Amino acid sequence: MADAAPRLKSLVERMLGAPLPVRIRAWDGSQAGPPDAPAVVVRNRRALRRLLWKPGELGLARAWVAGDLDVDGDLYTVLDLLTGLVWERGEETPRGTLARARGLAAALRDPEVRGAVRELARLAGPPLPPAPPREEARRARGHLHTRRSDKRAISHHYDVGNDFYEIVLGPSMVYSCAYWPSPDATLEQAQHDKLELVCRKLDLKPGQRLLDVGCGWGSMAVHAAREHGVRVVGITLSQEQAAYARKRVADEGLTDRVEIRVQDYRDVVDGPYDAISSIGMAEHVGAARYLEYARTLYALLAPGGRLLNHQIARRPHRDEAAYRVDEFIDAYVFPDGELQPVGTTVTLLERAGFEVRDVESLREHYGLTLRRWVANLEAGWARAVRLTSPGRARVWRLYMAASALSFERNRIGVNQVLAVRTPDSGHSGLPLRTRTWN
C-alpha cells in the first residue's frame, strides 16, 4: 500500500506542532499535502534515517547533499515556506522543534512527539546510521583559527576548482556582494561598480600601496592597479585562487604593480600600506581572533591610511551565549566560519585603534547577487556536476538560494565599514561630506 507520504506528513506535523505548508512526495509514489504547493521529494527511507540519527539542520543537509531529499518546484518558494519550521525565525521556535538539535531533548518530553518519533523510526527501516556524504568537511581536533586550521577551511571552500567558480561567478570572478545600479543590470556591471566603490572609499592614488586581504581570484587587485595606478599585494590561503590571480595579472600586463601571495594575514610584515581592502574575508577570522585581526591590519597601515572592511553580519541574539553556527554552513560550506553583529565588528575595530568613519549596508544588493549566482549555476548545471560532484553542486545551490532569502528577509546583512588609522594630529583626511563616493 502506497501510504508513506500521508504517514510522513502526519508524523512531521505532530512533531513540529504546525501544519506542513508543502507537499510530500515519497519513494513509493504517494503524495500528501496542499495540491498546489511545491513538493519536498523523499526519494528513499535513508533520508529518514539521516534525520533520526542527526535531527536538525545537519541531518537535513546530509539528506539533501546525498540526493535523498529533493524539491519539485521553485527552491526559493520551498525554503521560504519552511522558514520557521526548519530554520529559526528570529527568537521564535515552534513546539517540538525537531529541526533544531538543541531543542530535541525538550521536544522528546512531549509524549505525542515521542510517539511520532517511534513511528518515524519504524517507517525509516533498519536503524543503521548512513555515512555522511563525502562533500562534508573533515573536522580536525584542536583549536579553531590557527594558521593550519584556517588554511584547511579555506581549501575546503575555495579549492573546489576555478572552472566551477567561473560557472557560478561569471567573467568578473568576484565572490562577494555586488553593487547594483538597478535590479536589471548585469552581474559584471554590478561587480565592477562594487570594486570601484571600494577604490573610491579608500581614495586610492597612483603610486600608493594597497594590501588586499583575501584577494580571491585577483579581481580587486587587478582593478585597483589598472584603474587607479596603485601597487597591490594580494594575499590568499588558496593555492588555486593564487594561480588563477597570477595568470590574470600577467594577462593584464600588471606584474610590475601586482604581487599575489599565498600568505596568512598574520604573516604580512612589509608594511606600512596606504590602504587595505578586506572584502568577504573577515567572516573566516573567528570571534576569538577578531581583535588580533583588527590590530594586525591597524599596524600594517601608515598613519592616515584607510581600511575598507566588507563583511557579512548576523542579527544580534537576545542570548549571545546561546548563539550557534549554522550546522549546514559549517559542515559543507564555510568550515569554522563565524558571523558577528555589525556593532561587534565596529567595536573591535575601534578597540584596535581605528576611527570608524562610515558604515554602509548593502543587504539588498547581496540578495540580488546570490540570485544571479544561483541562475548561473542552474544554467551550467551539467558542467558544474562534471567538474565537482552532484553533491557539491547541490551544496552550492542550497547554500546560495537559502542565503539569498536570508539577506532579503533581514536575517543576515552585509556592511562596508570604512575605518582610518587617524594620526595624532586628528586629521583623518576624509572630506566633510563623506558620501562623495556615491
UniProtKB/TrEMBL annotation:
SUPFAM superfamilies: S-adenosyl-L-methionine-dependent methyltransferases. One of its GO terms (biological process) is methylation. GO terms for molecular function: methyltransferase activity. The keyword Transferase applies. The keyword Lipid metabolism applies. It comes from the Bacteria. Gene3D superfamilies: Vaccinia Virus protein VP39. Residues 123-148 are annotated as: Disordered. Keywords: Lipid metabolism, Methyltransferase, S-adenosyl-L-methionine, Transferase. Residues 164-419 form the Polyketide synthase-like methyltransferase domain. Belongs to the CFA/CMAS family. This is Cyclopropane-fatty-acyl-phospholipid synthase.
